[in-house]
Amino acid sequence: MTEPTRHPAPEAVGDIIPGEPPVPITVWQAPAPQAGDTMSVTLADRLVRNFTRRRWLVLDLTSGEQLARAVRAAQRHHARHIPEDLSAGIRRAALIVTGWPLGDTEPVPFLADCAQRVMVGGCVAVVLRAAELTVNQVLIAAARAAGLTYLQHIVAAHDLTAPRGQLDGTHLSVHSDVLIFRSSLDALRGSADG
Fold first, then answer.
1. N or C: which terminus of the chain carries fewer CB neighbours within 10 A?
2. For 66-98, what is each residue's pLDDT tens digit?
3. At what angle do helices 66-73 and 41-51 cross, to 10 degrees?
4. 124: which residues sit within 8 A by CB, 6+ positions away?
5. How many folded domains does the chain comprise?
6. HSE-CB for 18 with a 13 A CA cutoff
7. What's the domain of life for this entry (predicted)?
8. Residue 187 Cα to chain centre, angstroms
9. Residue 125 falls inside a structural domain
10. How deeply is 148 buried, as exposed, middle or buried, from its count of CB atoms within 10 A (0-12, 13-18, 19+)?
11. What CATH number does residue 109 fall under?
12. Element (H, E) at 130
């Protein structure tokens, strides 16, 4: 019996923001958030456990108590903030989690404040409520301007088997996008210089 001929996979194409290596897209199964909440407990738990260690600080700028519960269950430290008081703190966090959009908050100064509060190697997770591709691009550009590195795009796929009601001409939400940005020593040096 002869071995079948194996062909390598084609090169990936279509990066929104070219990277070396390209930013990975990861798919997580997670329930849809309840109305008014930023995320489900499942998504909050995955973010906390994947991007922090025991006793590290997580800054919470989300709606709902899901992140607070996940932080306590994983034995991390939790502090709730609003965008206006983010720059006032002195403790650096391992993870900052926020929903987007945040009212009238502008992305560049907000992500600059996040860059100042996240520890070297720490992450900022932005859970998007809007499904527009342009929102991703605006946030990625703002993060770069703040000295953060675009690390990962997580697609939190919601259960598609449950009935979702009627489609009435509005967008049916079947996933949430989460953009992960990482802080580096170079980012902190750049913000201190500028």
1. N
2. 999 999 999 999 999 988 888 787 889 999 999
3. 50
4. 95, 96, 97, 98, 111, 114, 115, 118, 143, 148, 180, 181, 182, 183
5. 1
6. 1
7. Bacteria
8. 18
9. yes
10. buried
11. 3.40.50.150
12. none
**pLDDT of 99-151, one tens digit each?**
998 888 999 999 999 999 999 999 999 999 766 667 888 999 999 999 999 99
Stated pTM of the model: 0.79
Give the pair of three-digit tokens for residue 120: 């070297």
**What range defines the domain where residue 141 resides?**
25-159+173-193
Are the C-beta atoms of 100 and 137 separated by less than 8 Å?
Answer: no
- Note the residue count of the chain: 194
**Tokens matching residue 71:** 């932080």
Q: Identify whether 4 is part of a domain.
A: no
Report the DSSP pairing between strands 149-157 and 25-29.
Answer: parallel
Q: Residue 102 and residue 58: Cα distance in Å, rounded?
A: 18
